[in-house]
Amino acid sequence: MVTYLVGALNGLAMGSLLFAIALGLSLVFGMMDVLNLAHGAVYLVGAYLAVALAGDGAGPMAFVVAVLAAAGAGAVLGGVLAGLSRATPHHLDQALLTLGVSLVVAELLSVFFGNDVHSVAAPAPVAGSVTVFGESYPVYRLLVIGFGVMLAVGVYVLVERSRLGSLIRATVADRGMVSALGVHTGRVLVGVFAAGAGLAAVGGVLAGPILGAAPGLDEKVLLLALVVVVIGGLGSVRGALLGAVLIGQVQALGTTLLPEYASFLVFAAMALVLLLRPAGLLPARTAVSA
Amino acid sequence: MPVLPAGPRRLRSGTAVLALTAAALVLSGCAGSSLDQSGGGQAGDAVKIGLLVPLSGVYAPLGEDMRNGFQLYLDQHGGKLGGRTAEVVTADEGEGPQTGVPAAQKLVTQDQATAVVGVVNSATALGLRDFFHESKKPLLVANAGADDITGARKSAYVWRTSFANGKVGAPLGAAVAKEVDGGVYLIAADYAAGREVVAGFRKTFEAAGGKVAGEKYTPFGKTQDFQPFLSAIRGTDAKAVYAFYAGAEAVSFVKQYRQFGLTDSTPLYGAGFLTEGGVLDAQGDAAAGVKTALHYSSELDTPRNKEFVDAYRKAYDEAPTVYAVQAYDSAAVLDKALANAPGGSGEEVAKALAGVGPIDSPRGQWSFDTDHDAQQKYYLREVRDSGATMVNAVVSELS
Q1: Which ipTM value was assigned to this complex?
Q2: What is the pTM of this model?
């Protein structure tokens, strides 16, 4: 029983990270219809920034600096991607374009940081373990859960309760109408793209002490983020949250219960959702709601 | 601006695109590309050697070490192998047979290499076996560990300067059975190498009276978080753990093994790849106390190794790894064999390889056995803090 409780806790930690990463992907797709395949590369930029700035055994300040630097770098990359992807309205072209960007970014990272696997130490004060349900558990992962909860509340208030949020939701629902009302939707789009990419890069820093940084990690993370978005539904904050928590739990508990099928459970969950709710569990409310 | 289609339809097609992309990412391997270097004709007093190592993909760090090791031997010997100027043609092995096999074929058919050295991936090595066997060209495997390469599928033209998976696992079995009072849990990545190493360990471990407390194989290349498996280990009465992981998985496993507090209660043993080279740098303090068995450590206290380590550090500004030594020794083997094969035909070189005798290597003296595999000493190593970095200190020699 204790094993499952710790597993569930661990699922929450992974879910928190996935939420931070998948949120931008979901909003950008829901809003701009752009499938940003460079999202994983943006994540990896964050992870390598953590390696460069926080490295091994850095203090909390260095870690905070890394988070801020990642947010900035991610936002810049997101802005560039937003600009690039507006050049063509076709799904496939955009996917290829962003895929190309992701390959270039990944190669640049491997030129600068080498092909070795890097790890990031959790900041010193929270690097230890505490006893949870009778087992020792890393303090850092508990903090990640806390961050996930704060992020979820913060984004919920921003998107569902603020004026800016209503603009974002309206743009997701019907871009043409918002544009017709005299709002410059281009700016909203670039803003959301940049914020989403910044969040993914911050996710890369925060995931550093858990997943490290290595070539190829971008694809693994992008894949999980896509699964989260498919399960949760496009363009919705609540969907991304539900999808992330669900995938976190499927990974953690699934591995505990059915280790032989661990690598395929996540995709089984996605297939099931696609069969039962093709638009995802909590898709964004749209202009012509049923 | 194009008119946007109605909401729900747009969303549904969007989901389909996403799902398809996810599927494509799952299915597609990462295709590497081979480095094209134009091949010229064979010069009169030169010999052309193909170096097939991964320069892209997850094995790239190994490939770099191997290339460095091979190059160091050439630099120390005036660029000559067997008295002839060596012309090295490098090709990118990539991650698997789909890139490695064509790259090797290009080295032999297009570049007309006299022999090919390298190969990290076992599937690539096994996939190349028939090609080298039939075209009668020597292949010196400098890392790929599948037991079959020098076992069931051995060939007169395939020689291995590195190790067989089963033989890496075996030496530690008796030592762990003696050191650990209680059951030992076996955990490894779920692919041929993981299963072969663990099987090799298990055989000698059980023969020496050891008891297995549990056994688990984790999805290869897909496991980033080992918490569920570590929790399962804690749920047994295991007194120690034997693990096989390499690369990124080795880093995650060893770090999380400490984070989840198993290090103090259950000592960790493993095959040497668990803490070798760049992997150990990334693990840092978390790896302290991990005991592994391997046929090399940069800390080996012999004059031959000290001289090698100094030269390697001078050339590349880092400590050599087992991968560098394996390639270095491959060059040494070729140097000896080519001296006795003036014609340079595949048959002649293969025959000369059988007569190279003992190799004076940084890892200690070794020689080919009757199956063309390296017969060598294994060392018990323990990760210790050397002040600046963590190192694999040599505890003792294993039989």
Answers
A1: 0.81
A2: 0.85
